[in-house]
Design goal:
The chain has 396 residues and is α/β, with parallel strands linked by helices. The protein has one domain (33-386): TIM Barrel, CATH 3.20.20.80. The protein is 32% helix and 14% strand. The chain is built from ten helices and ten strands. The chain has an eight-stranded parallel barrel, surrounded by five helices. Strands 3-5 form a two-stranded parallel ribbon. Helix 8 links the parallel strand 9 and strand 10. The radius of gyration is 20 Å and the shape is globular.
């Protein structure tokens, strides 16, 4: 592989998205997974190909009006994403949960629910105007702190109330996904205490209800360390993973060691995809801009101190995870975690945060987006003339 400091070729991306040719009503855009066999054929028959995505996060403070989803700045974020070479965006509206014993979800997040619905709808329209497909990911924010994977209402009655409230929350966003023409919907994010336990059938019932509202492709964002214990995978069209895999157990690991770690991830997930006969999609991948980000990539930037900022280490971590996956036909693609609806707003995270924008990692991602992946099918004749002939991540 060439050095990260090698001169790279910026690929010209032809943006043929004419707003007058968006082909009718939004509902006609939705890939009708409901008309396919959800368990095995929906993804292949959709003919989507490889997902090259970036999560565009909301502005997580009501003190920043006119900077969130659907704003003029959000439209610029979509343009930036397309020019980087991405073909998808993930949009993540939140609902609020008070604590880990909550029995309900408040759909309000920094603004009333109806306002958020309208903002997200405009953001989906902005993405489609740039020729980008959209994954809509309704997310949960635990107000008092704690990880949503550990939500536990404690009693059978508490769990019934929780399931009913979450169902209402999710169906509300499923209707937005349907009406706005989102191309895929996630039915949940990191809900370990629910979907890896004997309570999982109640979640499967909610997925059935979602399919009566939203006709498109469904995924679920399992955490990387519990996806093999997640029992709802048979109800989905594609296996989703928030893939914050550690690639090393030691500090100052070489790039070769990181790639070897990425190969280990690929080997495990190949078996998962084979067992369920479904492709695997990384609904989130991300590394912070610090020394050794691949050692414990799930550590949140807000909780760090005395951080050594290291763009090169972030770039190497992306390279290590993605390079072994290029030739894997079961791999459906990835979403980078994350940039923001206002691309210039530096208040959303620290300098050592996850965003790759304007950093060395962005060069690796440009190359990854430009590469021909096994998930794309056969390389079209003459495709090397149109785009860089990268077949391995890291050549740019």
């Amino acid at each position: 592989m060439a050095s990260r400091h090698t001169t790279f070729v910026l690929i010209a991306v032809v943006l043929a998205a004419d707003s007058t040719s968006r082909a009718g009503a939004a509902s006609e855009r939705v890939l009708r997974a409901a008309d396919l066999e959800p368990s095995k054929t929906a993804w292949a028959n959709s003919e989507i190909g490889m997902v090259r995505g970036i999560t565009i996060g909301p502005i997580e403070s009501s003190l920043h009006p006119e900077r969130g989803y659907g704003s003029e700045l959000s439209g610029r974020a979509m343009k930036e994403t397309r020019r980087l070479g991405a073909t998808w965006v993930s949009i993540t509206p939140f609902g609020r949960v008070w604590d880990l014993e909550s029995t309900g979800v408040d759909p309000t997040f920094e603004a009333p629910f109806q306002q958020n619905r309208e903002s997200v709808t405009r953001a989906i329209e902005q993405a489609h105007a740039q020729g980008l497909r959209v994954l809509l990911v309704p997310h949960l924010w635990v107000e008092t702190g704690g990880w949503r994977a550990l939500i536990d209402p404690k009693t059978d009655d508490g769990w019934r109330r929780w399931a009913a409230s979450y169902r209402e929350f999710l169906l509300g966003w499923a209707a937005v996904a349907r009406d706005a023409g989102a191309d895929m919907l996630s039915v949940g994010v990191e809900l370990r205490s629910w979907v890896t336990t004997t309570r999982a059938p109640s979640f499967s019932a909610i997925i059935d209800d979602v399919r009566t509202v939203y006709p498109g492709l469904l995924t679920y964002a399992a955490n990387w360390d519990d996806v093999h214990q997640t029992v709802i995978l048979g109800d989905l069209d594609v296996i989703g993973i928030n893939a914050f895999y550690p690639l090393t157990e030691v500090e100052n690991a070489s790039l070769a060691k990181l790639v070897a770690g990425g190969q280990g991830v690929a080997d495990k997930l190949r078996d998962l995809a084979t067992a369920w006969e479904k492709p695997v999609l990384f609904t989130e991948i991300g590394y912070t801009t610090r020394r050794d980000p691949a050692l414990r990539p799930w550590e949140w930037p807000d909780h760090m101190s005395d951080v050594v900022v290291d763009e090169g280490a972030q770039a190497d971590a992306y390279w290590g995870l993605l390079a072994p996956l290029v030739d894997e036909s079961w791999f459906a693609g990835f979403f980078v975690w994350r940039t923001y609806a206002d691309p210039d707003d530096m208040s959303q995270e620290a300098e050592w945060g996850f965003s790759p924008r304007g950093k060395e990692a962005e060069l690796v991602l440009r190359d990854a987006f430009a590469a021909h992946w096994a998930g794309d099918g056969e390389r079209p004749l003459g495709s090397a003339i149109v785009r860089e002939t990268a077949t391995r991540v890291g050549v740019y």
